[in-house]
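fyi for ur records
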Amino acid sequence: MTKKILIVEDDVHISNIIKMNLNLVNYTTAAAYDGMAALELIRQEKFDLILLDVMIPQLDGFALMERIKPYNIPVIFLTAKNSVYDKVNGLKLGADDYMVKPFEAIELLARIESVLRRYGKEERIMEFQSIQVDLDKREVTRLGETVELTPKEYDLLVVLMKNKNIALSREQFIDKVWGGDYYGETRTVDMHIKSLRKKLELQDHIKTIYKMGYRLED
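which gave:
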């Protein structure tokens, strides 16, 4: 089931950018631009996670956090404030994470994934076109048939699917799949991408980004 995320951010431009990035990776989103509007939405609808700005009109993020504790919805604070006091205050109120603006979309998606996983709300079956990945079994099927992948090919596929429609550099793939202590050539990414394209017939979907990396797209 698609996860539903509420974006509480009074800057419409920032809200729209966040919404676009979340929609690209198949999250369902709703937006509120002040604390009272957010409170009403939370009372009316079910959300799997809330992205909450601190400095919002009518009811600020900290006050809203106090009001919504009984709903037990995971919260990530998004704010321009970066003082230690604000971070500690937000976390003491029960927030699950705290991000200071500006931030990269890929970092936000990683934080969301981490929080949903802690709450047991991460999807354990991922799908793309005719491909299905069972994260618990580490099993990949295409058109119902099992496809044998090496451990690194599997990890690379999961990174691509979790960041669908987002361009990632070779260095980002290295960091996520091989780890920060890997000192080999980035060419290994190209070799594994070539293998994935062939085994899963993804030639039309794994796009090469010139002088950068790759993107998985519908």
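The two ends are 19 Å apart (CA to CA). thats all i got for now
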